[in-house]
Design a protein that fits this description.
Blueprint lengths: L10 H25 L8 E4 L7 H7 L5 E4 L2 H6 L1 H10 L4 E4 L8 H13 L4 E6 L1 H15 L5 H4 L1 E2 L9 E5 L11 E5 L6 E5 L7 E4 L9 H19 L7 H23 L4 H21 L3 H13 L3 H16 L4 H11 L7 H18 L14 H12 L11 H13 L13
Helix pairs in contact: 5-6, 8-9, 8-10, 8-12, 9-10, 11-12, 11-15, 12-14, 13-14, 15-16
Length: 429
């Protein structure tokens, strides 16, 4: 065992695994040097109850004369009127695209881009969870780079040009997309999910209005909150890329989530708790934009693409399974998070780390999140493994480099744990 990486047997395969790991780590070290030379800004944050009413002023400051509002079919009916009223009162012309699906596709991105250019818009408002924000970033990239497809811009720093202004208004407390450089898009034909990651995609403003999250169903509150927790933890245990700021923000996010998520799940009307969760998601989002995510996300994205599994739900289920699999490679950092989260335990780093993982399982259970998924098809596993490894390596600074066998083991565990789900959960997943 080397830094948590188990070599599968010896011979040529073992040698090749070692070469791959050496290449990935060298790539990440070089990339880290490059990232430290970049200007990492944060979106300007406007927070508090009713802050959505400040959107017209924000758009004017950005030089927007006509805005494209990108959202989903449910949000446009429930929360859209608040935004539209503010825009109309200020005399700001707007267009609406409200057909963003749970895992936005290339086709959706192209529809948004076409409507944007055909109607003479000059900026975007993304209203909703991670999906509208990802779709908006993808469309903004296509507006800026009309000769590049989404596939051409997949990967790191491949957009390059300044995109139209983006104002992000989250209606969940989880994705952190309002402060990230990433847009996750699904290929309409292959159902493969991939990410565009570029500093140009970070929104200029983030509007954190807790009133917009009060009506979230408890299950959505739970899964989006666990999504934020996944961001914070994967950023914190990053092998490299971390800075003092990203580590601090990840710690603060973990503390806020452990203190507030279950309260938000139980008492969704509490505006202070809702605002705390929005702040947690924002901090976790910035942390992982700088420090990266890992194998949890790589596997979760494949399930979203193949089975349309909600991203927060996938992360919630996979997170403790992957942390367990990492073992001693992450014990010191998880022990520190255990203390920060207030999980009561004494003992070694290993014991604290295991208690922290156990508490994640317990939180999931208390909020009705299943322990595993029974819908993963045996025939799909080779594709899941291929996509997950391709996404994670070499870009993600994972604490444990997976090979195909190790990734397959984790997926098998996800399937096996479905047998531990409460009977009532089978239909919900």
């Amino acid at each position: 065992m080397e830094n948590g990486y188990i070599r599968p047997g010896g011979g040529k395969e073992s040698f090749m695994d070692g070469l791959k790991k050496a290449y990935y780590r060298t790539y990440q070290q070089v990339f880290d040097i490059g990232m430290r030379c970049l200007h990492w800004r944060k979106p300007i944050v406007i927070s508090g109850a009713g802050s959505i009413r400040q959107v017209p002023d924000v758009l004017s400051k950005c030089g927007v004369t006509k805005v494209m509002v990108v959202t989903g079919s449910h949000v446009v009916k429930s929360l859209g009127p608040k935004l539209f009223a503010a825009l109309e009162d200020a005399g700001m012309p707007y267009e609406v695209f409200s057909e963003v699906e749970a895992n936005p596709s290339v086709n959706t991105v192209e529809k948004i881009r076409t409507q944007y250019t055909d109607t003479g818009c000059s900026g975007f408002v993304a209203l909703g969870g991670g999906s509208p924000m990802d779709a908006t970033k993808g469309a903004a990239a296509r507006v800026a780079c009309p000769k590049k497809s989404c596939d051409d811009m997949a990967g790191v720093m491949r957009v390059g040009k300044t995109v139209p202004p983006i104002v992000a208004i989250p209606t969940t407390s989880g994705t952190g997309s309002e402060t990230t450089i990433a847009a996750v898009i699904t290929d309409s034909e292959t159902h493969h999910k991939y990410a565009l990651m570029d500093l140009k995609l970070m929104p200029l403003y983030a509007i954190l209005d807790p009133e917009l999250t009060v009506g979230l169903p408890p299950r959505t509150t739970a899964t989006t909150g666990m999504d934020a927790l996944t961001h914070a933890i994967e950023a914190y245990i990053s092998w490299t890329y971390n800075t003092k700021e990203s580590l601090r923000l990840a710690e603060e996010a973990v503390k806020l989530i452990f203190d507030n998520l279950e309260l938000a799940y139980q008492h969704g009307e509490d505006l202070k708790v809702r605002e705390n969760m929005m702040i947690a998601a924002f901090k976790a989002g910035f942390a992982f934009s700088r420090a990266g995510v890992g194998n949890v996300h790589a596997i979760a994205h494949t399930l979203g693409g193949l089975y349309n599994t909600p991203h927060g739900l996938a992360n919630a289920v996979i997170l403790p399974i992957v942390l367990e699999d990492y073992g001693e490679a992450v014990y010191p950092k998880l022990a520190r998070l255990c203390e920060i989260a207030g999980v009561k335990t004494d003992g070694t780093d290993a014991e604290k780390a295991q208690a922290f993982i156990a508490e994640i399982y317990a939180m999931n259970e208390r909020m009705g999140i299943p322990k595993g998924f029974d819908f993963i098809q045996e025939a799909d596993i080779p594709q899941i493994v291929t996509w997950a490894l391709a996404e994670a390596n070499p870009n993600y600074p994972v604490p444990v480099v997976y090979n195909a066998a190790r990734c397959r083991k984790v997926i098998d565990t996800i399937r096996a744990k479905a047998a531990e789900n409460p009977p009532a959960e089978a239909a919900k997943t």
